Amino acid sequence: SSIPSLSAMADKRLLAALDLVRRMPPSRIESSLEELVDIVPDLTDDLLNTIDQPLQAAKDAQGNTYLNCDYNRDGDSYRSPWTNEYDPPIDDGVLPPAELRRLEMAANDLFNSYREMYYEGGASSVYFWEPEGEGFAACILFKKTVETQKKGLRAGFWDAIHVVEMHPKDGGKAHYKLTSTIMLSLDTDHSTKSSLPDQGFFKLSGSMTRQSEETLPGTKNDEHLKNIGRMLEEMENRMRDSLQTVYFGRTKTLVNNIYRVGGSSLDKAKTELAAALQKELGQKP
């Protein structure tokens, strides 16, 4: 038999790593990625550029909160969209050209208002860069974290990562491609004073990625922002509905099926939970 090429072996290792991370809850992606980089250091760049990690918030020199990702990173430094400066400072950091920077500033103001309206808190950041060919690319980020414990909710976060590409077309039109990823993690607590250790706690986490493409009239910056804003709003609404009706709905049904008012023995509850989980997992394609 022939010996696989080094590139083929690397591809298989990368696919295996991506498949492994895909099965990890968002709260464990960062630690899992660090372990993978230690195991296969030659795939570090591929892993960092391919795997979406939970967003990390930072503050710039002026006290503005911004979100870090691969799109505002240069080496070990990250650029604030508010000041256009890197932290830690670097002399030759990649910056968007003047016209694209003006569009980036307008987009940050626009989606900051969107965040206040839809998220009622949290943080947002928008980063623009020049892709190959004509047009532009941008990454629009939102993060909402459970800052104070509420009844039944111990901790959690919602991260939204939207990457959009715009390429001009003939006739005053532009083609937009939007790739959106939602990462969600919730830790709930429904324990009581009479609960046994670890009883009543529930962890729910997962991620979802969707894409959409549209060709719309648009040549000016305000037209591009309007088009992107509408596409993003519609995408987030669809993904929220999908998470609520499918993901949470299925989980609620599962929990209701194994919960008995009045209580049963812990062993019986464990048996029912295992059976229900096995049944649910067996129904997946």
TrEMBL record:
Family: Belongs to the F-actin-capping protein beta subunit family.
Any single biological process term in GO: actin cytoskeleton organization
Protein name, entry field: F-actin-capping protein subunit beta
Domain of life: Eukaryota
Subcellular location(s) of the protein: Cytoplasm, Cytoskeleton
Subunit structure: Heterodimer of an alpha and a beta subunit.
Keywords, comma-separated and alphabetical: Actin capping, Actin-binding, Cytoplasm, Cytoskeleton
Record SUPFAM superfamilies: Subunits of heterodimeric actin filament capping protein Capz
Main localization of the protein described in the UniProt heading: cytoplasm
